[in-house]
Amino acid sequence: MKEIIAIIRRDKTSETKKALEEIGFPSLTLQGVEGRGRQRGNICPDELDSDLPESYCMAVKLKPTPSTYALEHVLPKVALFVPKRMLTIIVPDKVVELIINKIIEVNRTGKHGDGKIFVCPIQKAIRIRTGEENEKAIS
């Protein structure tokens, strides 16, 4: 069994959930998260180091939030976090590539901020209600 963690754009959440359901994997956990990557929270993907006004940025009606560190320290630019969604899916080993490919297919725009996917091994899964373990617990 594997845990697939996908961090995606907020506006791709519904489309991703529907695509996973269509291929037989409706079970997932969804969390709202904030983070930043190589762009350091900049939401202007094509002008990463530019001083262009925000109106030139992507038409995202999101305002990244400053970090606590940035509020407490003098920084040349406020450290920003971009709101994202984090999906967690536990699946049998044999379908990991199928799930990963579907997530990529739905979420790839070719622009900065498309997200990341992480795959981790799961040693044991137990369904609390029935006591079923491992593959039976995740189906």
Automatic annotation (TrEMBL):
<dbReference type="GO" id="GO:0030234">
    <property type="term" value="F:enzyme regulator activity"/>
</dbReference>
<protein>
    <submittedName>
        <fullName>Nitrogen regulatory protein P-II</fullName>
    </submittedName>
</protein>
<dbReference type="InterPro" id="IPR002187">
    <property type="entry name" value="N-reg_PII"/>
</dbReference>
<dbReference type="InterPro" id="IPR015867">
    <property type="entry name" value="N-reg_PII/ATP_PRibTrfase_C"/>
</dbReference>
<dbReference type="GO" id="GO:0005524">
    <property type="term" value="F:ATP binding"/>
</dbReference>
<comment type="similarity">
    <text>Belongs to the P(II) protein family.</text>
</comment>
<dbReference type="GO" id="GO:0005829">
    <property type="term" value="C:cytosol"/>
</dbReference>
<dbReference type="InterPro" id="IPR017918">
    <property type="entry name" value="N-reg_PII_CS"/>
</dbReference>
<dbReference type="Pfam" id="PF00543">
    <property type="entry name" value="P-II"/>
</dbReference>
<dbReference type="InterPro" id="IPR011322">
    <property type="entry name" value="N-reg_PII-like_a/b"/>
</dbReference>
<dbReference type="GO" id="GO:0006808">
    <property type="term" value="P:regulation of nitrogen utilization"/>
</dbReference>
